[in-house]
Design a protein that fits this description.
The chain has helices at residues 15-18, 37-41, 67-82, 95-106, 129-148, 151-158, 169-179, 184-193, 203-208, 222-231, 245-248, 250-261; strands at 4-6, 22-26, 47-51, 87-93, 113-120, 212-218, 234-238, 274-276. With 277 residues, the chain is of the alpha/beta class. Strand 4 (87-93), helix 4 and strand 5 form a beta-alpha-beta unit. Helix 3 crosses helix 4 (95-106) and helix 5 (129-148) runs antiparallel to helix 8. The longest helix has 20 residues, at 129-148. It is globular and about 50 Å long. The model is unreliable at 263-272 (pLDDT under 50).
Length: 277
């Protein structure tokens, strides 16, 4: 079982609670449940569950062989806390978003009542073999570094990648310090077992599914803003944010959740981003 923590009303067996949506948050690579706290603080009336993915946080000692096993770990953890009937919304960032989309598209979340997805900066997958081969080489190089070099040194280079170009120096240093608590071997293992190179191209399945999928991206994140625009899915673009919207604009991110779910009281600020679709 993966480590998880929750608000006070997740496992209460009453009709009123059983009908309320449960928000389940999945962090990105190098992250943990703590990453979501600023958003949770903006959702005092929500029922939520946050999970440490394999190789991360309090689940550092848990490994997975591939995306399917990772999804099965997540599904088992959710079902044990929410049961089979309570409506569940998955909120996933980057790797967490890819896990949410993959499990939904491949039918690996049948053990609980999945009602919708809110995906923040998650990649839909690579459509060609050439792209997947190039990505495997890319991820393998990073995995080798995480496994064998001091993690602070690797992170210093990791956060120089183009997807993090909106970060300033102080923000990069803060992330390097925070992420240095990770175990390099565990990160390397998770990076390869859940590599984008091994993920199916999910967009057609998501477009055809009878499941609400809403995408969130920052206006400074040009790559994922383009993916969102071309996806045909509904999406929100948040101002003054890059790839990590929930970290840079937690109030705006929380308000998007409230408006999407519809049953949570409005408690956040007016910086709500632009809605599309």
């Amino acid at each position: 079982m993966l480590y998880s923590r929750s608000s006070g009303h997740v496992s209460v067996n009453t009709l009123s609670v059983a009908e309320r949506p449960l928000l389940v948050f999945l962090h990105g690579l190098l992250g943990s449940t703590d990453d979501w706290q600023p958003v949770l603080d903006c959702l005092p009336d929500a029922d939520w569950l946050v999970i440490d993915l394999p190789g991360h946080g309090h689940s550092q000692t848990i490994c997975c062989d591939d995306l399917q096993q990772c999804c099965e770990w997540v599904a088992q953890t959710i079902a044990s806390r929410a049961g089979a009937k309570r409506p569940v919304w998955l909120v996933g960032y980057s790797l967490g978003g890819r896990i949410a989309m993959t499990g939904a598209a491949c039918g690996w979340f049948s053990g609980f009542n999945l009602s919708g997805l809110l995906i923040e900066g998650g990649h839909f997958g690579l459509p060609t073999n050439q792209e997947r081969e190039q990505r495997w080489i890319h991820d393998s190089r990073w995995a080798m570094r995480f496994a064998h070099e001091p993690i602070e040194q690797v992170l210093s280079d990791w956060y120089q990648q183009a997807v993090f170009s909106s970060l300033n120096h102080a923000q990069r240093q803060t992330l390097i310090t925070k992420r240095s608590a990770n175990l390099g071997q565990a990160v390397a293992s998770m990076l390869l077992s859940t590599s984008l190179a091994t993920q199916p191209y999910l967009l057609p399945a998501l477009q055809q599914a009878c499941l609400t999928t809403h995408y969130v991206c920052g206006e400074r994140d040009k790559k994922f803003s383009q993916l969102a625009t071309q996806s045909g899915l509904s999406f929100s673009q948040v101002g003054q944010a890059g790839h990590n919207v929930h970290h840079e604009q937690p109030d705006a991110f929380a308000l998007i959740i409230q408006r999407l779910i519809g049953s949570l009281s409005s408690t956040t600020s007016n910086n709500n981003g632009n809605q599309h679709g």
